[in-house]
TrEMBL record:
This is Transcriptional regulator protein. One of its GO terms (molecular function) is DNA-binding transcription factor activity. GO terms for cellular component: cytosol. It comes from Mycobacteroides abscessus subsp. bolletii 50594. Keywords: DNA-binding. Residues 34-88 form the HTH cro/C1-type domain. Pfam families: Cupin_2, HTH_3.
Amino acid sequence: MNITIGHKVSYRQQCCIANAADTSCHTDGMASLVRALRRERGLTLEELGSRTGLTKSYLSKVEREHSTPSVSVAMRIAGALDVDVSRLFTNDAHESRVVVDRGADDWDDGKFHALSTEMLGKIMTPFLASPSTEFAEHKSSHEGQEFVFVHRGSIELQCGQDDDVVSFELNEGDSAYLDATRTHRIRRTSAAPALVLIVAAT
């Protein structure tokens, strides 16, 4: 695979060739963890909603495993619950100097697979994504920055809102870096499944 290094893009493109944090997380056990953490803090769904900007009905769907959140939404929920986002993916997260992932298991199309979930206090949060052909229910934005690299397939990125929406197609070998506070969403455009690496820094 040939990758061109040093290709320059405008600031507008830098903002709009955005992150891929718009498909859903690989959330085995996330529903029960979110519910337990919310109740542990004495928060109602309405109160969690006011902290995250998400509706009570959507959060209820997440807790009942009827909806799976994007990585951006998971980060907002984690922030509202005052926990490391890794806590939403596993009960085994702990302080560690090195965490090794031995090859990700297969996961459903339209899911995220969180990496290095056993390490708490990460500055960077890495994910593998297999985006679906449909845009996520919610446009995403969160504090920090993100890097995205398309390892396989092609994806469409939409960035912005209202009358300021720009779409870009990223193909195999393309990458982008952005201010993640800009709203964005993603879908797969290739016929075959796409595989994307996302690294969020907050």
